[in-house]
Amino acid sequence: xxxxxxxxxxxxxxxxxxxxxxxxxxxxxxxxxxxxxxxxxxxxxxxxxxxxxxxxxxxxxxxxxxxxxxxxxxxxxxxxxxxxxxxxxxxxxxxxxxxxxxx
Length: 103
Description:
Blueprint: H1 13-31, H2 33-53, H3 56-76, H4 81-85
Helix pairs in contact: 1-3, 2-3
């Protein structure tokens, strides 16, 4: 696998989860799930701020951080981001349409 900080094409969600688990898994386990949720929330706040006032580069940076913390949380909960994303594979999970046809 390419080094994650080097361009190398698209990274699928299971690859991301694996890289995050191998890179930060032990540290994240020691920190615990509540602290990971707190870090994820902090990064969401930074993403919100970058969305309002940041550059495209800042937005991408913060979006990447949110993805990393989400992958860490999924790993700690022994859940697969692939399985979670599958809920939206067919479009809206409520009406099963693309675009969503819900009222």
